[in-house]
Amino acid sequence: MPELAEVEFYRKQWSPGLGQTIEKVLLHPKARIFREADSTAIGKALKGSRLVDSLAHGKQMCFRFSNDSWLGIHLGMSGRLQTAHPEIVPSRHEHLVLVTDKLALVFTDPRMFGKVLHDRSASPPVWWAGLPPQPQESAFDRKRFREILSRHPRQPLKALLLDQESFPGVGNWMADEILWRARIHPASRPLELSAYKRGQLFGKVKEVCADALRVIGTDWGNPPDSWLFNHRWKRGGTCPVSGQPLEFITVGGRTTCYSPAIQKA
DNA sequence: CCCCATGTTCGACA
DNA sequence: GTGTCGAACATGGG
Asked: What is the pTM of this model?
């Protein structure tokens, strides 16, 4: 599930734990989500510390603890965060559980494409400090956008939008939504774009990020039918702009939904 | 049984 | 270096 807005939604699911002390850490030490971290060290470091802050950047989250501990979480394809009763007995897919006296903070991930990072340091670790500007920020301006396009002149736009160094947080449905609103064919390349289409694309990147954060990122609301979103999930869907059938192709190795009637090039 | 999945990474190749 | 492609990861759902 998790793209920009879903990640923001899940980040907030742990907010009830802010300010609380972690009394117990339950984890499956050999789970694949710990492949880039030392799960034993995480257990030791977090126990007795207080959760003081949480942040999201693209698809990456960062939870800061009182003893200079930084916990990074990436949700991968099937990860999610939630709270539970402090007496929780973790099930098979609940790989990391932080227990306070009031509640439990739970990271669940059946497919385990997600991952956990951890560092102890006074300043933010490199995996957090080194992230590129997010498309919804003002630092992501037309200059940055132009640079991205000129650096990848022949990348199909669908593939480029999925590049996390370029558009951190954009995932499969957002990329399709952006191209559909900009009326650009997903396989078009930056080289082929008119100045007008480039301007459209920049605007729709901003618009879809803002819309997604507002509608899904706050309370996982259901987007209106005027978005591509509600029409793309099953075959046989119809483009809400043209009334023509939606089609599915593979671009950049990913299933891509688009409306041939309005996304010609 | 088959195919598909809102993600990332790696290796082979042109 | 650029870009493409397929496979891999592990599990569940239709």
From this structure: 0.96
